[in-house]
Amino acid sequence: MVRIGYTMMTEQAGPRDLVEHVVRAEEAGFDFSVTSDHYFPWLRAQGHAPYAWSVLGAAAQATSRIPLMTYVTCPLVRYHPAVVAQKAATMQLLSEGRFRLGLGAGENLNEHVVGGGWPPVDVRHEMLEEAVEIIRALFEGGHVTHHGTHYDVDSARLWDLPDQPPPIGIAVSGEQSCRLAGQLADLVIATEPKQGLLEAFDRHGGTGKPRVGQLPVSHDPDRDTAVKRAHSQFRWFGLGWKVNAELPHPDAFEAATQFVTPDDVASSIPCGDDPDAFVEAVRPYAEAGFGEIALVQIGGDAQREFIDWSAKTLLPALREAFG
């Protein structure tokens, strides 16, 4: 059975609205939720970037059932891994065991704000491996001292630890990240329905571990409105990870996507209110082997209508197709 999730997209709504949206998503019957963690939106039209961890804490108190997850946090530059471990442990306590810590190698868009430059991808993967080592050590309790290639930790300890630490997921886009995820993670995270990523994850030790995917959608009763919104706010999506990870500012994303047309966007993102189109967009993920798929409704002001439509129409259609 495929579980369907809801995405709190911090780039397109303010903090109070994000919490309201996930409460409605829980009531609508979504199986889980995920939250982006950015300092900047990709495009100015999105218009938001609140602190994801405050939103998550509020969401943990405002909901009672729906699982919560970062999708994803970068524990490399903007956050030290010892601080990420503290935040994640606290979230697991606040949510009473509903939290999963999704990690990734990050984007220049968010990490550049603290200075120090943006490392090449090979170095970022080394940093991610070391960061996960530190986080897991802190989850185990006791004092942790670590002097590694990229990080120092001096007698750190988490004083509030859950009985069960949050599972760690790692986002993948190629062989290196699949190796890290297979060896170090409890679950794998991806934004593309590429079976090859899951096969690489399995080769490196991921067999039997959960797989979580994510799919942008643009619901609106008027398809032209849905396409226009998707083009305005999500045309960056097709650039691919190698490009998205390197661009430093929303203006760079504006320039990189200036020739992307509405038709280009509509060819890769389901738009409108035909549930069959949304089911067919989910199908490649299900067939690739993803057991959980988080939907991203594009547009901060389009969430309530999407959630209500999902409860009545989309979720039953998806469960009939993949349940």
Instruction: Assign the CATH superfamily.
Output: Luciferase-like domain
- Percent of residues in helical segments? 40-55%
The amount of beta strand, in percent, is: 15-25%
Major sheet, described briefly? 9 strands, parallel
Tell me the name of the CATH class. Alpha Beta
**Computed structural class:** alpha/beta
Uncertain parts = none
SSE sequence, one letter per element: EHEHEHEHHEEEHEHEHHHHEHEH
Q: Which CATH architecture?
A: Alpha-Beta Barrel
Choose one word for the global shape.
globular
Radius of gyration: 19 Å
Q: Which fold name is given in CATH as the topology? A: TIM Barrel
| Total individual domains | 1
InterPro entries: F420-G6PD/mer, F420_G6P_DH-rel, Luciferase-like_dom, Luciferase-like_sf
Protein name: LLM class F420-dependent oxidoreductase
GO molecular function: oxidoreductase activity, acting on paired donors, with incorporation or reduction of molecular oxygen
Keywords: Oxidoreductase
Description:
With 323 residues, this protein is α/β, with parallel strands linked by helices. 45% of the residues lie in helices and 16% in strands. The chain has a single domain, classed as TIM Barrel (Alpha-Beta Barrel), CATH 3.20.20. It is built from 13 helices and eleven strands. Helix 3 (81-94) links the parallel strand 3 and strand 4 (99-103). It is globular and about 55 Å long. Residues 203-223 are annotated as: Disordered. It comes from Streptomyces bungoensis. InterPro entries: F420-G6PD/mer, F420_G6P_DH-rel, Luciferase-like_dom, Luciferase-like_sf.
